[in-house]
Amino acid sequence: MLELVAASAIISIAIVPALAVMRKRVLASMDLRHYEWMHCRCVAVLEQAMATTAACWEMNTTDGVLGSVDSTPFRYMTVASDRNSVGGVPGKLAVVDALVFRDSNRNRTRDAGEIEVRMATKVAKTLTYQEIANDR
Predict the structure, then answer these.
(1) Which residues of the chain register pLDDT less than 50?
(2) Gyration radius from the chain CA atoms
(3) Closest C-alpha among 35, 54, 58, 39 to residue 119
(4) Which residues are bridge partners to 19 per DSSP?
(5) Closest of 71, 80, 79 to residue 103, by C-alpha
(6) How far is CA 26 from CA 20, 21, 30, 86, in A?
(7) Distance CA 41, CA 19 (A)
(8) Which of 10, 32, 54, 78 is within CB 3.0–4.6 Å of 129 for a Cys-Cys bond?
């Protein structure tokens, strides 16, 4: 009987806190995997938006679903604008912004607390981009 009490005490003192720490590390590892996945997708979304903007010089906003990881949906949004207020020059320089986020509550909008990756770049309007796009 004394051995059973001693074993229970050891379990509650040593193993239970260790399991709690291990659970936190597993969750952190999942977040890290999601960040890596989102970073790769954000680069792809940004490159697609850059190519579209350079080819036809259309300033627009797009959004959609990228897929799921660990049954959690991920969404994206891109914004292309040549307004001065965002750092562009009308008709000459566009700012392309890409956002990828984990839609934890599945409401299709970016909420506080949801992890995200955001990237932005600028695209200059040149005839070369448009000529190459129109030749295809």
Answers:
(1) none
(2) 24
(3) 39
(4) none
(5) 71
(6) 10, 9, 6, 39
(7) 33
(8) 54
The phi and psi torsions of 36 (rounded to 5 degrees) equal: -65, -45
Token couple for 112 = 């506080």
Q: Supply angle C-alpha 66, 54, 67, rounded to 5.
A: 0
Q: What angle do CA 66, 83, 42 make, to 5 degrees?
A: 20
Per-residue model confidence (pLDDT) at position 82: 95
pLDDT of residue 21: 73
DSSP designation for 89? B
**CB environment 42-71: b (16+ within 10 A), e (fewer):** beebbeebbebbbbebeeeeeeeebeebee
